[in-house]
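for ur thesis appendix - Methionyl-tRNA synthetase anticodon-binding domain-containing protein. copy paste whatever u need, i formatted it the way the template wanted (i think)
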Amino acid sequence: RVNSDLVGKLVNIASRCAGFIHKLNNGKMAADLMNGKLFSEFSEAGNEICTNYEKRNYAQNIRIIMALADRANQYIDEQKPWIKAKQPDEYKKVIGICSLGLNFFRLLVIYLKPVLPSLTERVEIFLNVKPLIWEDTKYPLLDHTIEPFKNLMQRIENDQIEAIVNESLNQLPADQ
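the 3d part is after this line
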């Protein structure tokens, strides 16, 4: 379920937003933050997440992060950039919506970096940024050019998990 959430909720934020940033603004994110209050809510969640990591409450953090991913996707759904993108006079707004979405994505990836460092490395390349650090959660990424979106994570299906488990069981030494 966690893998499904990561692909379906988290990575989906980037895939939904990056295309519009590239198509409408040559990959350059907005110079201004469209909704600073909402960004601050996501940023301030880092305080609780940091405390949870210190207490080794990893499961609680995953729940918090996935709830934030739900909120980010809800924001994008409500703003409907795919509809606004059909009207040239709305392009700036679409870029603002999608830039905020990518900033949500960036924050969530920073929050997941302690448990998903390899995903974070791929995201750093995609976002065209130096290695992400916790301090980066305080500031939005603005007026910045990103790379085209490429698949960052594959969904692992149950049959793939079973095959991996069975393969590892086959490699165990036989009981003596």
